[in-house]
Write a structure and sequence with these properties.
This protein is globular. A hairpin with a 5-residue loop joins strand 2 and strand 3. Helix 1 runs parallel beside helix 3, helix 4 runs antiparallel to helix 5 and helix 4 crosses helix 6. It is 44% helix and 14% strand. By secondary structure, the chain is α+β, with helices and mostly antiparallel strands. It has a 4-stranded mixed beta sheet. A 4-stranded antiparallel beta sheet has the order 2-3-7-6, with no helix packed on it. The chain is built from 11 helices and 10 strands. The longest helix is centred in the middle third of the chain and has 24 residues. It has 3 domains: 101 residues, Butyryl-Coa Dehydrogenase, subunit A, domain 1; 111 residues, Butyryl-CoA Dehydrogenase, subunit A, domain 2 (Beta Barrel), CATH 2.40.110.10; 138 residues, Butyryl-CoA Dehydrogenase, subunit A, domain 3 (Up-down Bundle), CATH 1.20.140.
């Protein structure tokens, strides 16, 4: 298979690089930056159906955009959940009215989204969700329950929520995919979660009678599991390739530090550095091989197992290369961040969660075994 990009793709890449160089260095806050991206037509690349996006772009051009964005000095995206997860889900399962209502504000950078999937008792095993959505006399839904590890919930205008609408239902039956406005004081509470790094990238979200309108059910009542699984499939491909650009930069920093500290003279360290480089190349080729594929049920799980273990091992290697200095942090007497980490310490601590969030390695291996290799299903207790 040819993994290269065409001349048109490279011309598009050059346009992207030039625009980012001219605009990404500003001091805009993240929400303003989303509007800047939307106004310039960079959100919704490839949403050709219905004309909801800003530009037409081939799949390889979408990869070029994602890779160049990852290489630029642009701030982290606040709108990626709406653009990369919600939007393709609505294009696949939503009504015309839902697409017309929600896709243009995402493409303009005007409305931000978060994902209401995981719960304290249902993380990687998503079918165990217990958040309830009860019908009200006017046909709407009243939502009660808790979600956790909700990225960007403190900034989001909307949340797509997987909730149980059929009383007494179990597992993947009786679930519904709901679009829920976050601006419901007294009915939705967002609490930040302090991590090992001292930062708070995730949140707990508590729903206490929050409302969702009947016309904001995606895919029909009771079809939430099908819609939710479809959404998770959109996490492969383009976003994975962009993620690997960041991985390559982190690996380059580790290699340079190994040379500076003399750690590279250790043959074991050299072997591990070369292995990390080779495995990263394999991940890229695998992502390109499955790009745009809809028939490989195990592709997202294979990709998750590959990158999570790789990144975790890189964090361990970074600390080894850093040496004794890597064990010392700088005190910073602040209630929000009591200590300050260097880049390697942050990489090591944050990557400990890589094999857990987004579907634990154990769950992913079960999916690969049962759905790809056809092995006997795991016994249920």
């Amino acid at each position: 298979m040819d993994f290269g990009f065409s001349g048109d793709d490279e011309a598009f890449r050059a346009e992207v690089r030039e625009w980012l160089a001219a605009h990404a260095g500003g001091a805009e806050d993240r929400r303003t930056w989303e509007r800047t991206l939307g106004k310039a037509g960079w959100i919704g690349l490839g949403w050709s159906e219905g004309g909801y996006g800003n530009r037409t772009a081939t799949l390889t051009q979408q990869v070029a955009w994602a890779e160049e964005y990852a290489r630029s000095a642009a701030p982290p995206r606040s709108g990626h959940i709406g653009e990369n997860l919600l939007a393709p889900t609505l294009l696949a399962h939503g009504t015309d009215e839902q697409r017309s209502r929600f896709l243009p504000p995402v493409a303009a950078g005007e409305e931000l989204w978060c994902q209401g999937y995981s719960e304290p008792g249902a993380g990687s095993d998503l079918a165990g969700v217990s958040t309830k959505a009860e019908r009200t006399p006017d046909g709407a839904y009243r939502i009660t329950g808790q979600k956790i590890w909700t990225s960007l919930a403190h900034e989001a205008d909307w949340c797509f929520v997987l909730a149980r609408t059929e009383p007494g239902s179990r597992r993947h039956h009786g679930l519904t995919f709901l679009l829920v406005p976050m601006d419901q004081p007294g009915r939705i509470e967002v609490r930040p979660i302090r991590q090992l790094t001292g930062t708070s990238d995730f949140n707990e979200v508590f729903f206490d009678g929050a409302h969702a309108r009947a016309e904001h059910v995606v895919g029909g009542e009771g079809s939430g599991w099908r819609v939710a699984m479809s959404l998770l499939g959109f996490e492969r491909g383009v976003s994975t390739l962009a993620q690997q650009v960041g991985f390559a930069e982190e690996l380059g920093t580790v290699v340079r530090t190994a040379v500076e500290t003399g750690a590279v003279r250790d043959p074991v360290v050299r072997e591990r550095l070369v292995r990390q480089w080779a495995e990263l190349r394999v991940m890229r080729w695998n992502a390109l091989r499955t790009l745009g594929s809809s028939g490989d049920a195990g592709a997202p799980s294979v990709a998750k197992v590959l990158w999570s273990g790789w990144h975790q091992r890189l964090g361990e290697l970074a600390m080894l290369v850093r040496g004794a200095a890597g064990t010392v942090g700088s005190a910073r007497w602040s209630a929000s961040a009591p200590y300050e980490l260097d880049v390697f310490q942050h990489l090591f601590l944050f990557s400990r969660a890589d094999t857990i969030y987004g579907g634990s390695d154990q769950i992913q291996r079960t999916i690969i075994a049962e759905r790809v290799l056809g092995l006997p299903r795991e016994p249920k207790g």
